[in-house]
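Supplementary Methods S3. Input chains for the assembly prediction are listed below.
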Amino acid sequence: MESIQASRRIMTGNEAVATGVKLSRVKVISAYPITPQTTIVEELAEMVANGELDSKFIEVESEHSALASVIASELSGARSFTASSSHGILYMHENLHWASGMRAPLVMSVVNRAIGPPWNIWSEQTDTFNQRDTGWLQIYCESNQEAMDSVLLGYKIAENKSILLPVMNMLDAFTLSHTSEPVEIRSERTAYDYLGDLDLDFKLDFKNPGGYGSLLGPDGPFMEMKKDMRDSMYNSIKLIKREISNFNDQFEANLPGLTENFMMEDADYALITTGAISSTAKYTVRKLRAQGLKTGLIRLFFYRPFPGDDILKAVRGLKGLGVVERNVSYGQRGPTYEDVVSSLYGKADVPVRNYVVGLGGRDIRVKDYEKMFENLVETDGGMEWINVGVT
Amino acid sequence: MYEIRFHGRGGQGAVTASKILAMAAFLENKWVTSFPFFGTERRGAPVTAFTRIDDQKIELRSQIYEPDAIIVLDRSLMKIVNVTEGLKSDGILVVNGKSGNLAETSRYRIGFVDATSIALRNGLGDPSHPIVNTAILGAFAKVSNIVSIESIKTATAEMAPSRKKENVNAVQEAYEETELN
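Predicted structure tokens for the full assembly:
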């Protein structure tokens, strides 16, 4: 029998993130506490205070300033980190564009939490789905292991000179952030070999002054720079796959690709999910398979860049596909649904439905997924709000 | 898979108890998860926490609705919360309190322990805020055979933020003093 405890430690998702930051030998940290992200910041502050992590911790008065601080430190050549959640991310929104536009290869961990009003501190992904157009790569973690690993992977991808875009890695509030489970601690030596030091070709340097983000007119290379960002994001798909494969080799890890196909080979009906709610969905898939229904699951590990081609390959032969959103958009269907349908348009003949679940931390149970699969089989179309008292 | 639900009040240590129990099972080479459900956090408010234990990696991440065991850190909660809701018919109930009439729950295997007195005589908390989480785990070890008392003591020593020796003593004393129905 495998020894589970030999190489693992029990930790929460937030502790796993802090350990990932330590393993990445981050030089500058600035963050403003917000439930349920707070324990990431507390853990890192403690590591810096007790000398475990050789890093500068910048205290600030807001999330906007936290991100501004680490954009500057990152561009000066010091690997930098921040973390936030919910309204903190909304308050950062302007600087999210600054970070990507200035090509600062930051990593930020976000604990997904609902957006008020009404006030709510529980899990929901609307906060980061609202940031999908900011030029950041987005990774949604399913486990605390991935919460740690995606920090290391995040820097490796962000700092790739063909990409140079910031990465945010997401943890569901409480479901990962405050859940304790076994996590394999990556070795410091391997982490160093894998990641190396930050090496920027252009950096803020007092001895060699230069400007970032200055005014460019309509004829200047403004539009060309935006296209370069867009191309870097698109082209990163190939590089991400290579980096994940390297990561798995070096750490003997088991990260999926940009997507994870779970029991998809012969599936008739499948769901698409992001984040930790995927685990209960897998449990449901196994349960329904035992009852004879050929179900499967596609999990989006990356949401930006959007792995449309991988989804296209996975859905061939399906009789029904349901896109599960733990976020809410108004006036159009959910963002993941729109992305999936756009990726399949004219290429795959699969009925696609949209399910909205778990807003404001509402628990997502096996019976909820069963309801979704039932809805797929019955081809009862239209958007469905799952487990909602009002219709 | 074995599922445990804790009921306590903010400040009594239910969340830590769920973690210590997970750690104890982990020491016995099990896969575990433990997680809290926070309402609006404040001292004295009802708090729920959960532990899952299995031989294989745990996929289920919803809350626990049909637990195998329920651990009640504060008996007064039983007047305002239906703590045994969903408890399996052959389930285990561990209650902080002297044994008494619990007719409505008598179909379960029940362990009573005066965790409050044990905590206080070991200097854990004070009379208005006794910290009963480690003692109650000693009682759980007595009533169930899911995790050994040794593993609970080792996990307690590792995870108690302070007064490690007193907490381990509380576990042992509760184990010895638990009364079964």
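Chain B touches chain A at residues 19, 22-23, 26-27, 29-38, 58-63, 65 (CB under 8 Å). Residues 128 and 176 of chain B are 25 Å apart (CA to CA).
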